[in-house]
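Friendly challenge for the regulars: who can give me the structure tokens for this chain first? No prize, just bragging rights.
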Amino acid sequence: MSTVFTRRNAMLGWLAWSLIRRRLRRRTEAAVAGLADLVETPTKRHRLRNVVVLGAVAAGGYALWQKVRGGGGADDRWETYEPSYSSAAEEPRGAASADGGAPVPAEEPGPAAA
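First reply, four minutes later:
Bragging rights claimed.
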């Protein structure tokens, strides 16, 4: 009974693969050499663009770092937060009234329900 995977077939496959690989390598080296003539050297315009992009990335990174670190004062607004109430009915118990008078008395706890 003959099998597909024999030493002879393995040797022929390895030889074919080696030759194909060598041929492809030579073709790509020739193509890359041909492309080297088409590539131009960077000009001042390209360098300026690179510097501008690098500066923008650096500024974005710094802003992100400030945001993550917690600096920048954006969170300071909550330290001085005072809610505004539109009517006396919405005022919490024990807080000063809107007109500056005496605080609204807190409700006294009633007798315990049995």
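The CA atoms of residues 25 and 31 lie 10 Å apart. The chain has two helices and no strands. Your move, everyone else.
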